[in-house]
Design goal:
The structure is a single chain. This protein has about 400 residues and is an alpha/beta fold. It has a domain at about 30-245: Aldolase class I (TIM Barrel, Alpha-Beta Barrel), CATH 3.20.20.70. The chain has helices at about 25, 60-80, 100-105, 130-135, 155-170, 185-195, 220-230, 235-245, 290-295, 355-360, 375-380, 385-390; strands at about 15-20, 30-35, 85-90, 115-120, 145-150, 175-180, 200-205, 275-280, 285, 305, 310-315, 320, 335, 340, 345, 365. It has a 10-stranded mixed beta sheet with strand order 7-6-5-4-3-2-11-12-13-14. A 6-stranded antiparallel beta sheet has the order 9-8-1-16-10-15. Strand 3 (about 85-90), helix 3 and strand 4 form a beta-alpha-beta unit. Helix 5 (about 155-170) crosses helix 8. The longest helix has 17 residues, at about 60-80. It is globular, with a radius of gyration of 20 Å. The chain binds iron/sulfur cluster.
Length: about 400
């Protein structure tokens, strides 16, 4: 059995952590974009926030989306990043009329990049025919993943799971997202267990308060235990492909493997996405940044954060380009008028970093002797040799 099967996230010494980040961002030249394409959605869930959806088609033109995508890459490359991760959401992103064309255009640039991946958060309401075209449009990308939002009021559980299994068989990594509302915890848990037992990853998200600054009251000890350690992520897609006799035919990235764990000299499973380093330089791992909120580990005010420099978010309806979702900083610009990325990482000035799209972006305590990306000059310039040798990069 893998040494990671009983890895206990509650053992992480959160008080002494001085750097966090998604490993693919810490150790690669990866630039991250989280892009809310519009608020139009074909579902009308009773619990959806009014600002999060619209019945009105509010998408920007495919031409403007492609122009913005090119400008993001240009500025990122200027800063030394030539690997890209684009994450599309909405509303329902698959309803953008040019969505598959946008993905094809993005995938066509793969040969000029070290790596390109795409993610979407979708209700997966479109049928199998559309999913086949989606698989085809993204086949030249190095990695493709989706967060599938299960909405019980609209989706049939078995059919929803069947579509996700089809995606897994076609080399798409899938996780189902569920907000674990305390009042309905057991019923939601049972639904999630159904998916988990069908070999589909599940992300259990604690419910946030309306200002998204902390998790709501009402969780019992047992519920919190499940949120902290329940249903750990596994590489189900690889297992599924093996099961149907398929091998991945995605291109190879232009960089090597991620570093091994320095303490045990073992490779770290790819589904352990987040690394946390304590003040003694020891590395700890979480399967995904979504778990930060369950531990209420989301206040990075004063930390040096690389969002806005090597990552941005774009949101509608105003088309603003921001450092991240949670940040109280002024926007970097807009899709229509243009935008400028920061010239270097900047201190966080926000009380809580609640979105996982934000918390996964590498950040460190002021003065922490650890780089935020390979070739991080801001680290190199102030670091002594002994500080550098604390951890190989
Ligand atoms: S709120 Fe923004 S600046 Fe602060 S840690 Fe999160 S992403 Fe970084």
């Amino acid at each position: 059995m893998s040494i990671w099967s009983d890895y206990d996230f509650t053992k992480i010494p959160l008080d002494s952590i001085e750097r966090v980040g998604q490993r693919t961002l810490l150790y690669r030249d990866l630039f991250c974009v989280s892009w809310l394409l519009g608020r139009f959605c074909n579902y009308k869930c009773s619990y959806c926030w009014p600002y999060a959806r619209s019945d009105v088609k509010d998408h920007r033109s495919t031409e403007l989306v492609l122009k913005t995508l090119g400008e993001i890459k240009r500025q990122a490359r200027e800063r030394g990043f030539n690997s890209f991760h684009f994450s599309f959401s909405g509303g329902e992103p698959t309803l953008h009329p040019g969505y598959l064309d946008i993905l094809k255009h993005y995938a066509n640039d793969a040969e000029n990049c070290n790596f390109q991946s795409v993610h979407m958060t979708s209700n997966v309401s479109l049928g199998l025919g559309w999913l086949k075209r989606y698989v085809e449009a993204t086949k030249n990308l190095h990695r493709v993943s989706i967060t599938a939002s299960y909405h019980k009021e609209f989706a049939v559980k078995e059919r929803f799971a069947d579509k996700l299994v089809f995606l897994q068989e076609n080399d798409v990594h899938v996780t189902i997202n569920s907000v674990m509302v305390p009042e309905r915890f057991e019923a939601i848990w049972d639904d999630m267990l159904y998916f988990h037992e069908r070999g589909i990853n599940v992300t259990l998200k604690p419910q946030s308060n309306p200002t998204a600054t902390k998790i709501v009251d009402g969780y019992t000890e047992d519920m919190l235990k499940k949120l902290k350690n329940g249903m750990p992520q596994r590489n189900y897609t690889m297992a599924r492909m093996k099961g149907v006799g398929k091998q991945s035919s995605r291109p190879s990235p232009g960089f090597g493997k991620l570093p091994r764990d320095p303490d045990v000299n073992e490779p770290i499973p790819p589904h352990f996405q987040v690394e946390l380093n304590d003040e003694n330089g020891k590395a700890w791992y979480l399967d995904q940044a979504e778990r930060f909120n369950a531990f209420e580990f989301n206040n990075f005010k004063g930390w040096e954060c690389s969002s806005g420099y090597r990552s941005i978010i774009i949101r509608e309806p105003d088309g603003s380009v921001k450092r991240s979702y949670s940040c109280s900083d002024a926007p970097l610009g807009t899709i229509e008028a243009g935008f400028d990325l920061f010239k270097s990482p900047r201190a966080c000035q926000t009380e809580s970093c609640v979105s996982s799209a934000d918390s996964k972006i590498p950040k460190r305590k002021p003065g922490a002797p650890l780089p935020l990306w390979p070739g991080d000059k801001t680290f190199e310039n102030r670091c002594t040799d002994s500080m550098k040798s604390r951890r190989s990069i």
